[in-house]
Amino acid sequence: MSKPNKKGPSKTVDIYCKNCNSKLFKYRKGGKGALVKCFKERISQDYTKVSCTCPQCQKIFARDTLIKGTPAYKMIGGKVWFK
């Protein structure tokens, strides 16, 4: 299988917790679809202390996984939003 592009897109989005609106990541997202997964190599700033857990409300918003052989976070539906 092909790996995702390492450099990735130049456009960044801020990812927030849906429960408490605290900032989780600054992520280089490609395309205009929904946020389903975040490749770890594309995260430019990580505001979380524990991986996949919101730093403010301590809710789990993603699962740690491998996608196409690359480490990524698989987002749980309805737990995050981005702009």
What's the short version?
The chain has 83 residues and is mostly beta strands. It has strands spanning 12-17, 23-28, 37-39, 43-46, 62-67, 70-75, 80-82. The strands form two sheets. Strands 4-2-1-7 form a four-stranded antiparallel sheet, with no helix packed on it. It has a three-stranded antiparallel sheet with strand order 3-6-5, with no helix packed on it.
Q: What is the H-and-E element order?
A: EEEEEEE
How many strand units? Answer: 7
Strand order of the largest sheet: 4-2-1-7
Fraction of helical residues: under 10%
Assign an overall shape. Answer: globular
Largest sheet, described in full?
Answer: 4 strands, antiparallel
Helix count from the secondary structure assignment:
0
The average pLDDT value, as a whole number, equals: 92
**Termini distance?**
30 Å
**SS-derived structural category:** mainly beta
β-strand amount:
35-45%
Seen as an oligomer or otherwise, the chain set is single chain
Low-pLDDT sequence parts: none
Cα gyration radius (Å): 12 Å
Total number of distinct structural domains: 1
What is the topology?
Blueprint: E1 12-17, E2 23-28, E3 37-39, E4 43-46, E5 62-67, E6 70-75, E7 80-82
Antiparallel strand pairs: 1-2, 1-7, 2-4, 3-6, 5-6
Provide key terms for this protein.
83 residues; 3-stranded antiparallel β-sheet; 0% helix; mainly beta
How would you describe this structure to a colleague?
The chain has 83 residues and is mostly beta strands. The chain has strands spanning 12-17, 23-28, 37-39, 43-46, 62-67, 70-75, 80-82. The protein has a 4-stranded antiparallel sheet, with no helix packed on it. The mean pLDDT is 92.
